[in-house]
Amino acid sequence: MPLWGLSLALIGWGLWQAEMLRRSMVAQGTGVALDAGMAISPDEGAGGDGAAGTMPAAAGPTLVGVTAADLSPWPPAAAPDVTAALEPTPTFDKALSAEELIARGAGLLEAGETVAGRFALNEALARTTDEVRAAQLRERLAALNMPVFLGTAILPDDPAVRMVPIREGDTFVSLGKAYGVPAAFMQALNPKLDERNLRPRTGIKIVQGPFHGRIVKHSGRLDLYARDIYVASCLVDFPEGNYLPRGEYEVAAGTKLQLGAGSALTTWIGFQGLEPATEGVTNGWMFGMAGPRGNALKDRATGIHVGDGDLLQLYNVLSEGRSHLRVEP
Fold first, then answer.
1. Is the dihedral of CA 261, 263, 269, 270 positive or negative?
2. How far is it, in rounded angstroms, from Cα 162 to Cα 184?
């Protein structure tokens, strides 16, 4: 079968498998409505009016000079550590190609080994340099991972997302610090638990963080990762005159800001450079319809515009001082 035919077959099979997984989760009472407080998705992004946009099937044109390293996903060399580390992400033989990993992942998913299949497809995404194939893998992985990493669903034997027992003295704040995620996100993962009365030995869902963002400028896309596991993507754009250098950034302490309430809620996420190539950026902002935090030209030159719904989800999962942003060409 020609490669394009195999690709179409895999996409069709993947969409069917995702629907079967969703139905299984709902049947077990663990499904999550992705439009109920879970804004970030492959089909949402930063339109000109801040409303949801549509992610194209392909990630965009390839820039001259873009290498495999430019397109590689998380983790960065200096990923923040957390004190309650779970099992590491499985490793794969470096000799395996992306196509071989895709075939392995598809076989595992067909056999009902969802977590193992997810890890194989996640590694395939890390190794592919074909942007069309990468877009297909992101769509497949988002269908698997969004209900788990951003909702209330749990997969059996998942080392990255699981139930753990509450201990005496635990709070959403202490658990969030331990697992590298904001306290508000811990609460969103466990809507039936009362922060004021966390009972010891009761189960609580945790997601192993921290979450990171990979911004690919030439395709106007932000990829969200939980540690090194791809979760979802949203569209982003950049103000005229933006010069944000490629390289590593950190969500800066004290720069996740929200003002107002309800429909008047305004959100910003600040970031600063972490390496010589980016150290000149000390006041970068991810912003929605309200615009950058400041009015100076420099605030637009290092800004990233995100749809308001996606910005709110990013605010919920990114941790100050722990979450990184990596900008690529």
1. negative
2. 18
Same domain? For 316 and 257 the reply is: yes
Same domain for 243 and 203: no
**Same domain membership, residue 267 and residue 317:** yes
Q: What's the pLDDT tens digit per position in 128-140? A: 989 999 999 999 9
Q: What is the CATH number of the domain that holds 180?
A: 3.10.350.10
Classify residue 185: in a domain, yes or no.
yes
Answer for the pair 171, 198: CB distance below 8 angstroms, yes or no. yes
Asked if 82 and 178 touch (Cβ cutoff 8 Å), the reply is yes
Provide CB contacts within 8 A for 265, sequence distance 6+: 258, 259, 312
214 vs 237: CA distance, rounded Å? 13
User: Are 124 and 102 contacting, i.e. CB atoms less than 8 angstroms apart?
Assistant: yes
Q: 116 is written with which tokens?
A: 């193992």
Query: Is 297 in a helix, a strand, or coil?
Result: helix
Which letter does DSSP use for residue 103 in this model? Answer: H
The DSSP letter of residue 77 is: T
Q: Are residues 322 and 242 in the same domain?
A: yes
What Rg do the C-alpha atoms of the chain give, in angstroms?
Answer: 19
What tens digit of pLDDT does each residue of 111-166 get? 999 999 999 999 999 999 899 999 999 999 999 999 999 998 999 889 999 998 99
The Cα-based distances of 63 to 45, 66, 135, 163, 325 in angstroms read 22, 6, 16, 43, 21
Q: Show the low-confidence residues of the chain (pLDDT under 50).
A: 1-71, 74-80
DSSP state of 152: S
Cα separation, 172 vs 182, in Å, equals 8
- The helix/strand/coil state of 285 is strand
- CA 299 to mean position of chain CA atoms: 25
Cα gap 68→192, rounded to integer Å:
44
Taking the alpha carbons of 93, 12, 232, 226 in that order, is the dihedral positive or negative?
negative
Pairing of strands 284-287, 303-306: parallel
Full residue range of the structural domain in which residue 188 is found: 161-207
